[in-house]
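2024-03-11 09:14:02 DEBUG pipeline.ingest accepted 1 chain
2024-03-11 09:14:02 DEBUG pipeline.ingest length=281
2024-03-11 09:14:03 DEBUG pipeline.predict start
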Amino acid sequence: MDTDQSSLGTLYLVATPIGNLEDMSFRAVRTLKEVSLIAAEDTRHTRKLLQHYEITTPMVSYHQHNEKLRSEELVKALTEGKSIGLVSDAGTPGISDPGEELVRRCLEEDIPVTIVPGANAAVSALVISGLSARSFCFLGFLSPNKTERQEQLDQLRSMKGTAILYEAPHRLQKTLKVLLEELGDITVSLVRELTKIHETVWRGNISRAIMEMENQRPRGEYVVLLQLENDKNAETFWQDWTLEQHMDHYLSQGQTKKEAVKTIAKDRGVPKREIYDIFMK
């Protein structure tokens, strides 16, 4: 499509604070004051930020439930020469938040798109987690679809480095138990309330994390970082153990006997029934 670039508006992807309002950049404030319109994931939430910085630019909602329809409306406004600032509730738009669809549509229409960088929970958590930042992957929230979630977990088993996930507090325990069963008792770092007063970083084995979370009430969205060590030594750490020693290892890590049976079977690549018949009968 041939388009007169000078007649088009620009889409600005504007990162906003993930907690501490002082993390808003000068450029982000100026951009949101100068654009014609702000597209916000939750206008009520963003209004608090705008009021803090005395930004009076009009807003429209742009969230997962109206993303496709609203994208067309915003593209039309951009082709008419209006500039738009896209913001999510926190962090960088498009990272586990709405934005992908609008960016794609803008690029299809040759509409200029630029980034006003700033806070990002995944990268911020990575650099304070104590885990390796040399090689990492970001999966966002695990899929609620069972088949897709299993594909994500299978992908993790074949990787080496640090994997970064997001998780809601009410699902944290369930997710940790799934990760333990699928990946073994690897090192995990749990980061929450980034840049806020109660910012915390916890690190240890997954089994220990499960025990720790049982003694407290998780609050605030978590960033879960996994240390993936899919090399030969990590995969066969148990190779000189008897089955009894293998079982004792996982019991000492806080697993139940039933959970340990599943983990041992996965470690050794044998049918679960084979281990079950030895320990559960």
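2024-03-11 09:14:41 DEBUG pipeline.report The chain has twelve helices and ten strands.
2024-03-11 09:14:41 DEBUG pipeline.predict end
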